[in-house]
Design a protein that fits this description.
The protein folds into two domains: 194 residues, 3-Layer(aba) Sandwich (Rossmann fold); 138 residues, N-(1-d-carboxylethyl)-l-norvaline Dehydrogenase, domain 2 (Orthogonal Bundle), CATH 1.10.1040.10. 55% of the residues lie in helices and 11% in strands. It has an eight-stranded mixed β-sheet with strand order 3-2-1-4-5-6-7-8, with helices on both faces.
């Protein structure tokens, strides 16, 4: 027995075994479901594609979204939402934010009344400018919102699935709910911190995807490391600026769900959002880039929702504004950067 397997065996004996539904069979949902099952939790994954459900149950692989990874043998998969959440103590949402409302409407009648609602998706709903916690409160009620946990941090799905060392944050106003999610996920390769700043963690996950597209654009244009470092730093300032208008804590943005996730997504080759930006910087059309991608780059739609939210809240976010214009108003990328550099001179802040 390896040291890792011995550690996991010890941890499985000391933690409470949860019955968990993971809603969303993309790369991130699959990686998280695999981790939860490996930790000894009774875990079922819901996936939309019938062929994917069959593959996971028969071969314990997800060749569509997480090729080359062998999933834990106890992980079950279903295409039936009611079956997935029936009797589950934790429901983990990992569907794209822009379809979250529709999925929750289907789930709502079947979720156990005292189940913890956790969310690992990152973005802001375009039509309402709401974060996922607000959507959950609206559709599931204040009781569910009181048990809501937001999961975020610098984590690529493939590296989590490969059991490479990773750290995330579980944020909730309910310390007990956050602690149960923390315990369900924690293992020698995944360290989980708790946090009470739900809105800060959610905003960090949404804004960083937009900044990552901007970073990719700079890299695609060949602007070098100086520009990328400056963009990440000023992007963090914009994230913090928006957060302050919504009651978030500044310390959240200097932590894993802020700076940590921002640096990863702006620099890592596995980042879908950075890849979109890089190809835009090289001159490709957005429609052609998205047509090549199977997985969702949340930052494309989040650019519009974050930009609209910044205007609504009166938060100055010039990088987000220019990224929105490039993506949705066909502004040439090089022209957008020139306009950013030509803004009025001011003190840093």
């Amino acid at each position: 027995m390896t040291m890792t397997s011995m550690n996991e065996e010890v941890m499985s004996r000391t933690r409470e075994i949860e019955r968990i539904a993971v809603i969303g069979g993309g790369s991130w949902g699959t990686a998280l479901a695999g981790r939860l099952a490996a930790n000894g939790n009774d875990t079922v994954l819901w996936a939309y594609e019938p062929e994917l459900v069959a593959e996971i149950n028969a071969r314990r692989t997800n060749s569509l979204y997480l090729p080359g990874i062998n999933l834990h043998p106890t992980l079950a998969c279903t295409g039936d939402l009611e079956e997935a959440v029936r009797g589950r103590s934790i429901v983990l949402l990992v569907t794209p934010v822009q379809v979250m409302r529709g999925v929750l409407k289907q789930l709502a009648p079947h979720i156990t009344h005292d189940a913890i609602i956790a969310n690992a998706s990152k973005g802001i709903e375009l039509e309402t400018l709401q974060t996922v916690s607000l959507i959950c409160g609206e559709l599931l009620g204040d009781d569910a919102l009181a048990r809501y946990v937001a999961l975020s941090g610098p984590t690529f799905a493939r590296e989590v699935a490969q059991e490479l060392p990773s750290l995330i944050v579980a944020a909730s106003r309910n310390a007990t709910a956050a602690g149960r999610v923390q315990a369900a996920f924690s293992c020698p390769c995944l360290r989980v911190y708790t946090n009470s700043d739900v809105i800060g963690v959610e905003l960090g996950g949404a804004v960083k995807n937009v900044i990552a597209i901007a970073a990719g654009i700079c890299d695609g244009l060949g602007f070098g490391h100086n520009a990328r470092a400056a963009l990440i730093t000023r992007g963090l300032a914009e994230m913090n600026r928006l957060g302050q208008t919504m009651g978030a804590q500044s310390t959240t943005f200097s932590g894993l769900a802020g700076m940590g996730d921002l640096v990863l997504t702006c620099t890592g080759d596995l980042s879908r959002n950075r890849t979109v930006g890089f190809k835009l910087g090289q001159g490709m059309m957005l429609t052609d880039i998205l047509a090549e991608m199977r997985m969702v780059a949340e930052g494309v739609k989040s650019a519009a929702s974050v930009y609209q939210l910044s205007r609504k809240r009166g938060a100055e976010m010039p990088i987000v504004e220019k990224t929105y214009q490039i993506l949705h108003e066909n502004k040439p990328a090089r022209q957008a950067v020139i306009e950013l550099m030509a803004r009025d001179l001011k003190a840093e802040g």
